[in-house]
UniProtKB/TrEMBL annotation, chains A, B, C, D:
Residues 2-280 form the Hcy-binding domain. It comes from Periophthalmus magnuspinnatus. Zn(2+) binds at residues 206, 265-266. Homotetramer. This is Hcy-binding domain-containing protein. The keyword Methyltransferase applies. One of its GO terms (cellular component) is cytosol. Pathway: Amino-acid biosynthesis; L-methionine biosynthesis via de novo pathway; L-methionine from L-homocysteine (BhmT route): step 1/1. Binds 1 zinc ion per subunit. Transmembrane segments: none annotated. Signal peptide: none annotated. The keyword Transferase applies. Involved in the regulation of homocysteine metabolism.
Amino acid sequence: MQDILERLNAGEVVVGDGGMVLQLERRGYVKAGHWTPEAAVQHPEAVHQLHREFLRAGADVLQTFTFYCSEDKLELSGNVTDITGAEINEAACDLAREKWLKGSALVAGCVSQTPCYLGNHNEAEVKSLFKKQMDEFLKKDIDFFIAEFFQYVEEAAWAVEVLKTSGKTVGATMCISPHGDMSGLPPGDCAVRLVKAGADIVGVNCHLDPTACIQTVNGYMGLPEFPFVVLLSSLSLICRSLTRWDVHKYAREAYEAGIRYIGGCCGFEAYHIRAISEELRAERGFLPPASEKHGLWGAALEMHTKPWVRARAHREYWESLLPASGRPKCPSMATPEYE
Amino acid sequence: MQDILERLNAGEVVVGDGGMVLQLERRGYVKAGHWTPEAAVQHPEAVHQLHREFLRAGADVLQTFTFYCSEDKLELSGNVTDITGAEINEAACDLAREKWLKGSALVAGCVSQTPCYLGNHNEAEVKSLFKKQMDEFLKKDIDFFIAEFFQYVEEAAWAVEVLKTSGKTVGATMCISPHGDMSGLPPGDCAVRLVKAGADIVGVNCHLDPTACIQTVNGYMGLPEFPFVVLLSSLSLICRSLTRWDVHKYAREAYEAGIRYIGGCCGFEAYHIRAISEELRAERGFLPPASEKHGLWGAALEMHTKPWVRARAHREYWESLLPASGRPKCPSMATPEYE
Amino acid sequence: MQDILERLNAGEVVVGDGGMVLQLERRGYVKAGHWTPEAAVQHPEAVHQLHREFLRAGADVLQTFTFYCSEDKLELSGNVTDITGAEINEAACDLAREKWLKGSALVAGCVSQTPCYLGNHNEAEVKSLFKKQMDEFLKKDIDFFIAEFFQYVEEAAWAVEVLKTSGKTVGATMCISPHGDMSGLPPGDCAVRLVKAGADIVGVNCHLDPTACIQTVNGYMGLPEFPFVVLLSSLSLICRSLTRWDVHKYAREAYEAGIRYIGGCCGFEAYHIRAISEELRAERGFLPPASEKHGLWGAALEMHTKPWVRARAHREYWESLLPASGRPKCPSMATPEYE
Amino acid sequence: MQDILERLNAGEVVVGDGGMVLQLERRGYVKAGHWTPEAAVQHPEAVHQLHREFLRAGADVLQTFTFYCSEDKLELSGNVTDITGAEINEAACDLAREKWLKGSALVAGCVSQTPCYLGNHNEAEVKSLFKKQMDEFLKKDIDFFIAEFFQYVEEAAWAVEVLKTSGKTVGATMCISPHGDMSGLPPGDCAVRLVKAGADIVGVNCHLDPTACIQTVNGYMGLPEFPFVVLLSSLSLICRSLTRWDVHKYAREAYEAGIRYIGGCCGFEAYHIRAISEELRAERGFLPPASEKHGLWGAALEMHTKPWVRARAHREYWESLLPASGRPKCPSMATPEYE
């Protein structure tokens, strides 16, 4: 198994994993509102199982379950009193490792935005938080770093600068819209800033539906400075979820936009990652293990006893499906409260 | 831990588990269209983890992962060539047992409708399929039986008659609408037939949203013949899922309708079962373990940095929420193809 | 021009007119909330023009613009201080007559439910209100009577009993649902009661969408006592209107259900009545005058400059159209406040 | 009654009229797809009545019913064989005159885009079509000119240049989006071009919902060259109509954006124009005649027999109403076919 950059340089399509905190919240192991990853220590078997599902669905990279695992965030949340960040970060590295998982994937050590940055914008303090996490990861065997879920490019750039001191490959993904980051810097400028800070791979993640993600990434793609873009889309809202058929379309569009590292974020479950793997099976040359339990485009419906169900066993049916909400008393679009 | 009937007789509210085949399909272990449970042998850790989630969410009963595990159905599906039904049924009993799960719940051995019934309506043949499954369960340590997911009351009654020969408590739940079963028999008549066949507990499951489930059960409740009703609601369709707040409402309505065994079916995940447990915490006297990772009614949002998110940390907000589909080009209701 | 009963007996399809009070409210001549018809005196040219539109659209019967024109209702509304009911009723008869309209249609003198009935249920008093209106109509030249918009069958039957004393044909339409009238009497029983009171034609009008109207009328149709049924559908709510294509479907379904007097109620405009006439052009043997300004099924789009508009010039396009609301932040169904 | 420019210069709010061709199509006098105004000759009483409704609703300006009345368009439509454009234009001027209408309003002679422009872009030919119409209007007594419904600014500017030779005031409104006209010229540039051609008043009309109209006009407003802006919004699509409450909001927003000539386009009926008049009653100092038949904000519901209807008799209820479509099987947004 080669290095992530070698693989991307060789033209390989790299499939990422899905959203861990949101899924583990639904399973009962993460507290919504806090979103901290202490389950890596408290319930390792639950974290372990979710890694295994993403691996089975075709993920080439597993991200450590270390979202919001900076010391300041853990302290602020107040729901982790007897476990240190170091314990979580180290346990999470072990959980993502292949020896547990009976499969092989690269492991990316992940850091994310800190409350400290919003509080005081103190570069030294924020960087020391990232440095501490990086050192903990380096005690374990991780393959590269990802700085993810940053709303301000300045903080993301600081994270990249710290992580680059490790000598390892560093990717950085921001949760920004086509209008730019929270400071108003357009996507293209954010990307340039991250590359200048040392990022080898840049991308977007979360807060956006796939179409908006790809539109945002287009702001990245026009620039010559960076070779690789990662796309991690989100579908996390209540009662809103992408179908596997939506993800086929998303994976194809991302591929056609030139993106070669494609994964998911909040709301992506194993069947979404499998859909990426299945859509790009020709380009990748293989199907993931989980496809043994999946008829492509509903093929397993061909033997249904009811003719109108058998009629669904083909791609055209699912591609043209307009899924109903089942909620006629609800709107189809909400008004964002911050508008 | 008492017997299920003792607990119901004592007035206890019994919480069931959620939907296993649908959830394990999403995780990559069950094939949609076939819906057979060979993962109990092939991927026991995945089945085991899902049991653990439901247990942690407050389930008092775990159903064995043996849906559609009659020999005729396994053979018809064609995707289980080297594993016998006996192997699956026996493995599934072990997986639902508490020694694995570090918790305690009653284990219900489950049988479901057979292709054989639809094919030839041969009572002896259908009953021998149920008898074989029952004997496999009885090699293991299960607490009682559930016959579930029957569309015809005749077949359900045959299953009950077989299972009662074990001497154990038998529950039976049908997937029927307020209009009755597929032969047109109204819910109340179905219930009488099941009770006459020997069922100790009767109920409905699947194919219906909660409101319709409760309406159907009302067809059961008016009759004096049977003491206990189980309610297993479903929310399985693409892009349609109940919110945890919907489930609070559903659990309360079911309780007020006099139902004392309340669980979920296809689409119910751990957070739905937890919502049942949380809604009925006063009646049951305790919260489930998973509630340590859940602020009731969004309480964990109270410390959010953004004021409009903090404003959501109360019950009124979530109860009055009309979740948007995010799909303005889709309808809110679909036209059933069989109409 | 024959009598209405002769025409119906001869198998003719009789087309009714549309909704006058609602349309004249939009045009500025009727006060919403009161819905009284003083415009017959105050703005005869506006009433006259609307009659002319319905006539031109194919109406065989024009109803006098005398909705809610009982003395008690006029007094209660308080917005008609210097005009008597007699003046309105008489003016309305003239306005519906063909000498003004340059066309020919039967004129039906109309009475509707009274506040008096709800107030005291005094048969003598309610009947005297209907008697007074009837006498005013009989001073003018009307062809037959319609008692319309009754929520209680008892009051409708009283109206029929009074109107029958004139020796003229009497029709009666109630605004009831498939569940029956406001006293809970099922549609079929309402119809029998009306026929026993002397009604020659019975029907339903208003408060219902076309599908529910036809479903309600089915409650009427099974009975042998009455030969003729009139169907007046409604589409009056804010932002809800039937398309002309919906009305094609409605007219066909009504015809196939055996109904031979088909019109509209609140919300039906001239183009809806024209759609009834156009759908039933083969059965009636002619098109109405207004069809000179209408390409059937969008035929006039055939010469549009844009190809995607030309592609709409055929029946299949319009029949399969699912019209969007354009309001993604609104629900598709509302919750009735009286539930 | 002063000149339109004197009134606007004096700070008066001028209310326009609504959409004539669309409304007369519904009434049976205009052919959809052709949209030509031969009804001015064929059915003057219908045109006359609609003018009267707009006047009664508070319109200060009535536009002649001469949409698409250039000779080339009339010939192309093929549905006007025995009537000349001159006959229509002259009849239309008479119909909009106050002597018929028993009220007073300014009369604007209107020209609109020509098929000739799209066909050959021949300036001399297109201008001669406008010149012919202008000369016909000048035989009658009109107050000023409006060039309306132009998709290309070049053709609109040609129309203005011709009309200015009359010495009369000229307004020009284009049906363009915030992205500009069909040639891609932004709204502000379109406006400058029109003003340079001699337009005294510029504006937008049709093809847009009110919010987009105001957004487009903002592209006009920033420029110093022109003093007056007219806003004619549209709501013409099947099953989409603005409520009177939507129009209150639209009128207020237009007023606050500095617009002082506010009317409607396709789909605006008398009750929409009345809503403009009612919203701006304080600014204008009076209510229109049609308000005698309208309780502001549902005031007439105060005396309804049902309490939940009485509860609607206030502004807050109607302002917060989210009108349901009543069509759960339809989407809320459509996909434009030309995308």
